[in-house]
UniProtKB/TrEMBL annotation:
<dbReference type="InterPro" id="IPR015365">
    <property type="entry name" value="Elong-fact-P_C"/>
</dbReference>
<keyword id="KW-0251">Elongation factor</keyword>
<dbReference type="Pfam" id="PF08207">
    <property type="entry name" value="EFP_N"/>
</dbReference>
<comment type="similarity">
    <text>Belongs to the elongation factor P family.</text>
</comment>
<dbReference type="InterPro" id="IPR001059">
    <property type="entry name" value="Transl_elong_P/YeiP_cen"/>
</dbReference>
<dbReference type="GO" id="GO:0043043">
    <property type="term" value="P:peptide biosynthetic process"/>
</dbReference>
<protein>
    <submittedName>
        <fullName>Elongation factor P (EF-P) family protein</fullName>
    </submittedName>
</protein>
<dbReference type="InterPro" id="IPR012340">
    <property type="entry name" value="NA-bd_OB-fold"/>
</dbReference>
<keyword id="KW-0963">Cytoplasm</keyword>
<dbReference type="InterPro" id="IPR020599">
    <property type="entry name" value="Transl_elong_fac_P/YeiP"/>
</dbReference>
<dbReference type="GO" id="GO:0005737">
    <property type="term" value="C:cytoplasm"/>
</dbReference>
<keyword id="KW-0648">Protein biosynthesis</keyword>
<dbReference type="InterPro" id="IPR013185">
    <property type="entry name" value="Transl_elong_KOW-like"/>
</dbReference>
<dbReference type="InterPro" id="IPR011768">
    <property type="entry name" value="Transl_elongation_fac_P"/>
</dbReference>
<dbReference type="GO" id="GO:0003746">
    <property type="term" value="F:translation elongation factor activity"/>
</dbReference>
<dbReference type="GO" id="GO:0005829">
    <property type="term" value="C:cytosol"/>
</dbReference>
<feature type="domain" description="Elongation factor P C-terminal">
    <location>
        <begin position="200"/>
        <end position="255"/>
    </location>
</feature>
């Protein structure tokens, strides 16, 4: 026990020094570094760990919403086939005319076709007016089969199937043959229309027998083709003939073997 007291007294004494400035010989002044070391020793193991200063967490910057502006086009740059958005619906420019009157401001008169309703409207824009562009995507698909009120198309690269209602195809449905390739028009993930090639070759399945000596100028008769569509054909056309049909007009062009 005496040894312990002696050791402590020795440690305390080693941490003290005589201060000559005090004028009192023998006055003791603690050495700061040694005194801190003694306090840490007396405090036990918990005193040996240096405490870290209190750190405030850094404040994260506020996230502001990102606004994405739709692409626009000037009415001065209108052209046939341009896709635009009017009153929230996609339209296709069919006709346009730049007008510069003698008095007043110039304007653009246009005829637009609604992709959704297939209706055609006339609309006038100010010259240089900004109009939202419609991001209409056309993808080549192959028509595979008919499933009730829906037509099934397939992407020949990914083999992904897409279903389209017959309403979206419209009158083009009667010229649609399995295995034929079409352009599927998509806007905002929605199928708007299906565009067939300008002409198709189909086989005649029903018509009145042709009369010998009939010519292309000798009249016409009704005809049914393999897809169920009907049209007028020349009198010399017979069942089993392959004929070329204008899909937009729904009219006869020629027999397939007659076209060079």
């Amino acid at each position: 026990m005496a040894l312990v007291h002696a050791g402590c007294r020795s440690m305390l004494t080693s941490g003290l020094a005589v201060s000559p400035a005090s004028g009192m010989q023998g006055a003791l002044k603690p050495r700061p570094s040694s005194f801190i070391g003694i306090k840490s020793f007396l405090a036990g193991p918990q005193g040996w760990t240096q405490r870290q200063p209190h750190m405030r967490p850094s404040r994260l910057p506020e996230r502001r919403p990102i606004s994405i502006r739709a692409a626009t086009v000037s009415s001065n740059d209108f052209k046939t086939g341009l896709n635009i958005v009017v009153d929230g619906a996609p339209y296709r420019v069919q006709e346009f005319l730049h007008v510069k009157p003698g008095k007043g401001s110039a304007f653009v008169r246009s005829k637009l076709k609604n992709y959704i309703t297939n209706n055609t409207v006339e609309k006038t824009f100010r010259a240089g007016e900004s109009v939202e562009a419609a991001e209409v995507d056309k993808r080549t698909k192959q028509y595979t089969y008919n499933d009730g009120d829906q037509l099934v198309f397939m992407d020949m690269e990914t083999y992904e199937e897409i279903r389209v209602t017959k309403e979206n195809v419209g009158d083009m449905n009667k010229w649609l043959k399995e295995g034929s390739e079409c352009e599927v028009v998509i806007w905002n993930g929605r199928v708007l229309a299906v565009e067939l090639p300008s002409s198709v070759v189909l086989k005649v399945t029903d018509t009145d027998p042709g009369v010998r000596g009939d010519t292309a100028q000798g009249g016409s008769k009704p005809c049914t083709v393999e897809t169920g569509g009907t049209l007028q054909v020349p009198l010399f056309v017979n069942i089993g003939d392959d004929i070329i049909i204008d899909t937009k007009a729904g009219s006869y062009i020629s027999r397939a073997k007659d076209k060079k």
